[in-house]
Amino acid sequence: MRGRSMRLGGAVLGAMVAVGPVLTGQALAADKLKVGFVYVGPVADFGYSYQHDLSRKALAAAMPDAVETTFLENVPEADSERSIEKLARSGAGLIFTTSFGFMEPTLKVARKFPKVKFAHATGYKRSDNVATYSARFYEGRYVCGKIAGKLSKSGTVGYIASFPIPEVVSGINAFMLGAQAVNPNIKVKIVWVNTWFDPGKEAEAAKALLAQGADILTQHTDSAAPLQEAEKQGKLAFGQSSDQFRFAPKAQLTSITDDWDGYVIAQAKAVRDGTWKSSDTWGGIKDGMVVLAPFTNMPDDVKAMAEETTKAIVDGKVHPFDGPVTKQDGTVAVKQGETAPDPMILGMNWYVKGIDDKLTP
Amino acid sequence: MRLDLVPRIRRSAVLDILAPALAFVAAVMVGGVAVAALGVSPGAAFVTYFVTPLSDVWSLQEIALKAAPLALIATGLAFCYRADLWNIGAEGQFVVGGLAGGWVGVATHGSGGSVWILPAMLAAGALAGAAYALIPAVLKVRLGVSEILTSLMLVYVAQLLLDYMVRGPLRDPAGYNFPQSVGFEAAARLPYLMEGETLHAGVLIALAAVGLGTFVLARTLFGFEVRLVGASPRAARFAGFSDARLTLAVFAISGGAAGLAGIVEVAGRIGQLQPEISPGYGFTAIIVAFLGRLSPPGILVAALVIALTTIGGEGAQIDLKLPLDLTRAFQGLLLGLVLGADVFARYHVRLVPGGPVSRTAP
């Protein structure tokens, strides 16, 4: 039964890939490394999934004769195991699963396909053929916080947040610490929208925050809707994941952009060369994984400060979580002269002092 | 001139089967045009969508897994819709069922793995789903509140409740504060039926539910009551059937089925509680219920067709680079055409002279 059905499926697949070499007359398609990407959102979100897809295209452009890329978009986290296994079964040698919720399914499929390599974004469980990667987004948030602290006239910044996972919470804290560094009385108001991508909900949250007196918006969701709302109302905002300047040329101050190109290409090269090893990568501005879009719509002195801060982070002179860091409840999290260790940032589930919101204990 | 729909006195069995089949063919043809417009050969797309998924054992298992919750939920919904009652909130009942059953799995974690854990989880899931569905039913019976609105709104309540539970009380203490519970132990997981850790025992539960639903609807007094109330509420009242009792019963059945589907998904494929446990099964099941014309055997076929197109759609994304939107558009087209074709199976269409007239057909 199994042999027969495999032949049937194989024949169909074979007929399809056979078209490739005939047209190009080059190396057999089967020789190429197939690289699959699994996205949680649509590639047209102009944010997180879009940015990942740019890296897929960058990979295809960088190694056109060596790789063949493919992707599945809008994959629900609750239903991702089949999608990941489907890619593994269709011959992918390297698979990027790009959302935290894909962690357990990725590990399970990886156990079944020990020869296929997997790279999972933002998770913390690894195995022999599952690597993890993420970016130190909080570094960019700190710079944004400083800009907002300088520019806000009302003294209130609106923050549209997705899910209270450590990545998002540490981002909120880094933003607040940056803002407090220039304006100790700054207020940050938070709206949780419980989604990564929902332009309607994000726009509603933006309206609510602006109505409550915020004059600068920042977001940890993926659509450009909050930026557009700020643009419409003549306020300022930060972009997210991707440079969203074209959506809000008068409102975008900068954008915390993910740049996975280098990582994706290096992983594919390593698989081709047979040198791939499971690893944990957590890159920041220095590594080029977090890129701040050009500083726009701000006076020169603020721009200079933002550039200085960015440089200080790259040089290691400033760390967003340099002590003293005080928690909301008044206890000291990081002492004067110390810096928060990575595990503390990776598991952050508390707010710093001054944030007007409560986290579920 | 106007078109008039006149109900057929005797429905033709041949037409009843032919109508959805022709609708399927028409949907494939329209889909083929769309595929060709995207620069892909319609023949290759047909093979990828409908043939390749049926040609290997793994895909067949995946189709069964995808169809199982849809068939289970839709069978429950058929009781509601047959009785002309509108439970739109199966998604919420699914989530509550998964949460309640999963809670049992979390609470018994590390207790030594008694054989009673899994049955207790399934029972908790079904009961919680039924209880949750009774909220709109009681509101309707007691206060006359529209069950369509309340059952739908309760979906969001259920999703946020699950979200709260996995971030708070049920969070894995060793999970770096990420919103998810501990992974269930083997005793709290549905056993796999085949090698390769794909097909699990949940599909048997769904099959049993379809069989039971068929029997109850066709062969029992209660099934007769459901059908009668839907077809002719006045006649049902004369026959002494109670509206209120029936409302409560069908909501409990549909909620129980959805809740059971929820815990089957959690104890089967997912294996832990997480903020999102359903890719919209509760809503898709409404489509499945109508594609299957509210009869459990038809629902089983419809669930398999929807599962096939979903899995074929993934293959089309990978092999032919066809967008996901095309799959979704095709599924919508299929529903529209099947329901449309049904009109012709149930009515004669007549061309009548004269202007517009008040509607007589139901």
Keywords:
heterodimer; A: 361 residues; alpha/beta; Rossmann fold; 2 domains; six-stranded parallel beta sheet; six-stranded mixed beta sheet; 14 strands; globular; B: 362 residues; two-stranded antiparallel sheet
Topology overview:
The complex is a heterodimer of chains A (361) and B (362).
Chain A: H1 2-24, E1 33-38, H2 48-62, E2 67-72, H3 80-89, E3 94-97, H4 103-112, E4 117-121, E5 130-135, H5 137-151, E6 156-161, H6 166-182, E7 187-192, H7 199-211, E8 216-219, H8 225-232, E9 236-241, E10 252-258, H9 261-273, E11 280-283, E12 290-292, H10 300-314, E13 325-326, E14 332-334, H11 342-346
Parallel strand pairs in A: 1-2, 1-3, 3-4, 4-5, 5-11, 6-7, 6-8, 8-9, 9-10
Antiparallel strand pairs in A: 10-12, 13-14
Helix pairs in contact in A: 2-9, 3-4, 5-6, 5-10, 7-8
Chain B: E1 2-7, H1 13-37, H2 42-51, H3 57-82, H4 90-107, H5 117-143, H6 147-167, H7 202-219, H8 221-231, H9 233-238, H10 243-270, H11 281-291, H12 296-319, H13 324-346, E2 347-352
Antiparallel strand pairs in B: 1-2
Helix pairs in contact in B: 1-2, 1-13, 2-12, 3-7, 3-8, 3-10, 3-11, 3-12, 4-5, 4-6, 4-10, 4-11, 5-6, 5-10, 7-8, 7-10, 7-12, 11-12, 12-13
Main location (chain B): membrane
Protein name (chain B): ABC transporter permease
Membrane topology (chain B): Multi-pass membrane protein
Account of the protein in words:
- The complex is a heterodimer of chains A (361) and B (362).
- With 361 residues, chain A is of the alpha/beta class.
- Chain A has 2 domains: 27-136 and 260-283, Rossmann fold, CATH 3.40.50.2300; 137-259 and 289-346, Rossmann fold.
- Chain A has helices spanning 2-24, 48-62, 80-89, 103-112, 137-151, 166-182, 199-211, 225-232, 261-273, 300-314, 342-346, and strands spanning 33-38, 67-72, 94-97, 117-121, 130-135, 156-161, 187-192, 216-219, 236-241, 252-258, 280-283, 290-292, 325-326, 332-334.
- In chain A, strand 6 (156-161), helix 6 and strand 7 (187-192) form a beta-alpha-beta unit.
- In chain A, helix 5 runs antiparallel to helix 10 (300-314).
- The model of chain A is unreliable at 1-29 (pLDDT under 50).
- Chain B has a domain at 71-303.
- Chain B contains 13 helices and 2 strands; from the N terminus they run βαααααααααααααβ.
- In chain B, helix 5 packs antiparallel against helix 10 (243-270), helix 7 (202-219) packs across helix 8 and helix 11 (281-291) packs across helix 12 (296-319).
- Chains A and B meet through helix 1, strand 2, helix 3 and helix 4 of A and helix 2, helix 3, helix 6, helix 10 and helix 12 of B.
